[in-house]
Cysteine desulfurase
Amino acid sequence: MNAEELRKDFPILSERINGHRLVYLDNAATSQKPRQVIDAIRRYYEHDNSNVHRGVHTLGSRATEAYEAARERVARFIRAKSPQEIVFTRGTTESLNMIAHGYARAKLREGDEIVLPPSEHHSNLIPWQQAARATGATLRYLPLQPDGTIRLEDVEAAVTDRTKIVAIAHVSNVLGTVNPVREIAEIAHRHGAIIVVDGAQSVPHMPTDVVEMDCDFLAFSGHKMLGPTGIGVLYGKAELLAEMEPTYFGGEMIDVVDLYESTWKEAPWKFEGGTPIIAGAIGLAAAMDYLEKVGLAEIERHDAALAAKAVERLAEIDGVTIFGPPPGQSRAGLVTFNLGRVHPHDLATVLDARGVAIRAGHHCAQPLMRLFNVPATARASFYLYNTEEDVDALVDAVLEAKEFFGHAIG
Ligand code: PMP
């Protein structure tokens, strides 16, 4: 894999930021888009644009074919058994809310438990709080090790026959830890619970096989994997999608509508009320073509190697605190850190002046920030078009920031 070559496919990477080469290290928030994805969307609007599933005309058929082909593309990408297990949504957040509202609320009873780590992104936490509040179920949190990992024995202890749902990110967007979801799924299933996997940070960066993982639901976003914003995926095992209720209603999703009652289409179409995100799905399919051509296993190695190098070099800087696994321990392609008492927003501003784009804030994980006892952190996250030169630029910029904020370190 040649990141330098791949960079040429991403027009935005030639932007100059404050007179510097753009060093884009905010990929966990959203990724950049290659020409191939931008072109696929443009081609659709220039040649095939129409509404789907109803037009009895040529463009209607072309748009429908392209949209349903995108569904098949997604199914192949995550090795789902059937395209009917793929629901198009607006993103991870919407997918998780649909599970919590359309599936979980009908299943949960008072005394039931939902097991999850305290490090979850707000979108894999608040929907469960809401479902618990509505049903009388309770949330039960897994303990985190100081390096952010989760021990299987703690999962064994927390998951009981009261557990109905285990909700967990495959890769933490703050810690960069890779959770053992396959083993956790096995524990959940042994107790008759289902497992909901937040794949927002894993599906873009590593090979995914939902059958092998044996997850019951998987949620992810197109925009973090070279696709456009506004498109995401809810994968669900066929039998669970059949049981799950739609959470919004209207055109396209119905079978027969009467004045007082209506019936729905089968899954996945019953979940896609209204005109679907046609161009988004087509853009996502093009993104998946691109990622598979490069190779997900290669991308995983590449991102993790850059993050490992960044962790190692940042940890050598006096005053830098690394969150999550320490240097030398396995982590996904992101690193979260702080520089002394410098507020991460100030750090990110200084880095931006040098063209280095990182994230600063609570990363939609306020309970985890409270566990760390910090208001916010800085985060650099890598993707296939990042290079060792980008790691150097990050480290150099942090060193410069250290000079600049000297009084607040130590
Ligand atoms: N879960 C995780 C782990 C994430 O990193 C994100 C995005 N930051 C989300 C969920 C939410 O994704 P989206 O905003 O695309 O719905």
